[in-house]
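User: Quick sanity check before I run a bigger batch. Here is a single chain. Can you write out its predicted 3D structure?
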Amino acid sequence: QEPENPENADAPQEWGNQISVFSEAAAQNVISESFEGADIGTWGMTAESKTTLAVVEDSENAGNHYLQLVTTEAARTIPKSLFDEAAPEMKSAVISFKWYTTSFSSTSNSGYAGICIKDGDNEIVTLYVNDIRQPGKGQTTTPLYYTVNGASEKVQTQKTIDTNTVHDVVLDINFETHKLEVKMDNEVVASDVAFNPLTKTVEGFAFKTEGTKPSANIGIDDFLLEYSTYSGSISEDFEGADIGTWGMTAESKTTLAVV
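Assistant: Done. Predicted structure follows.
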């Protein structure tokens, strides 16, 4: 006999007196933040010296707000934990957000500003923009970089980013294969990227600035984390005197017993 709800085949199904239990069903979960509302503060993030964190109004989109980081000649990592308690082990995760790349420069002309996704102290992936030192003299773009193994191993993509622009970012992370994909503005800019096999979850997010006296004005909006976890498994070996009929009830002209 077929289950009554085949579209929900991952859930336990009852077929007459037979119970079928499907183990390791994926549970879907969501964390989101639109940065609209008076009680957001700095989204639980703490500004350090020479940095400012604030929810501000988008100058190009009146009424819309985003979380802005401004640093003044300071290399900083400003973290955000996405969970109040321990982050669950994940099967997969899709992260999307709008990235405001307003301006960035450093005295070394080799600084970087970016957004890091991590599991505790372990980096999953970081996206970076490079210096845009002289926007008034024709330098208005920077390549997009990513790294899964620290700033020294950044990979330059074919994507370029202008000053004072907003970009849609999607990170598709598979913790079973430990491969990820990066999309920006609906374009795949990196795919099949192997990342740290020790990572098991998206625990947090961070703003990062690096280089000699980097000064950044960047931000995010409409942050969304959709992730699936394993709900676990149920088993019964029918050994032991207290099993009875496993909670099942025999009807007329039927017998249920552990034999």
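The chain has a mean pLDDT of 84.

User: Great, the batch can go ahead then.
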